[in-house]
Amino acid sequence: MSNNRPIGVFDSGLGGLTVVKELNKLLPFEDIVYFGDTGRVPYGNRSIDTIKRYAAEDENFLLSQDVKAIIAACGTVSSVATDVSKKLPIPFFEVVSHASKMACETTVNKKIGVIGTSATIKSGKHKEYILKFLPHAEIVCQSCPLFVPLVEEGWYSADDIVVEETIKRYLEPMIKAGVDTLILGCTHYPVLEDAISKVLGDGVKLINAGTATAKAVLEFLEKEDMLKGEGQGNIDFFVSDKADSFRHQASILLGREIDDSKVKTVSL
């Protein structure tokens, strides 16, 4: 039996749109409700208790939209706050385990890099999953706290000298270690993919958590017979602040114009 309810996706801001983009590629017929907590971005430098409270509030909002599944399109929430999701009455997906598994399947020299927010790296979740899938992997982790502000500010061009120099500074340990695979451990980071590839070179494969998670969602919904019927999917956007700024950047990131009526501001 098909399930025509939408899929709920949340993130601290714009980054989760990289997951929405991948979902839309694999499941173009599915409706999506996206919540970006733009009033409280970033989550990565908050305390664990605060992140858990934000995650619970985000999930409760999506539940109010009658979604059939929830995706935490946020590396920070996926790393330190997934226990909150255990109370959910619907399926829940995080982005860390799926990205880690894809990295292990991709690497050749077993040297894997992980970049993320301070909270994500401190949690050690990516390392835990990688060693589960590939016990003898060599893992290099690096927090990149300036990446999210760059993306939220709209600074992500590979030709921007500020962007390039910031990436070089953070990724120096990856270059020295000779990693051949790099997990973009925050869903904001795929926005910087071209700039990161320019610094690391073509020899390093970048793992987009959105791609890995979208595949997992598709497989689950197929198995549980929860896919929507035919038709073009609709995406509704909700933010906690700065709707105009969000709409502009979201239009660029998703590659299509988003109408003003599709972005609503809500208070949690």
Keywords:
11 helices; 268 residues; 16% strand; 2 domains; 44% helix; alpha/beta; Rossmann fold
Segments where pLDDT lies below 50 for 5+ residues? none
Strand content: 15-25%
* CA gyration radius, whole angstroms: 18 Å
Helix content: 40-55%
**What is the H/E string?**
EHEHEHEHEHHEHHEHEHEHE
Shape type: globular
Number of strands: 10
Largest sheet: 6 strands, parallel
Q: Helix tally?
A: 11
By CATH reckoning, the class of the largest domain would read Alpha Beta
User: In whole angstroms, how far apart are the ends?
Assistant: 33 Å
The largest sheet has its strands arranged as 4-3-1-2-9-10
Compile the SSE list and pairings:
Elements: E1 7-11, H1 17-26, E2 32-36, H2 48-64, E3 69-72, H3 75-80, E4 92-93, H4 96-106, E5 111-116, H5 118-123, H6 125-133, E6 138-143, H7 147-152, H8 161-177, E7 181-184, H9 193-200, E8 205-208, H10 209-223, E9 235-239, H11 243-254, E10 263-265
Parallel strand pairs: 1-2, 1-3, 2-9, 3-4, 5-6, 5-7, 7-8, 9-10
Helix pairs in contact: 1-10, 4-6, 4-10, 8-9
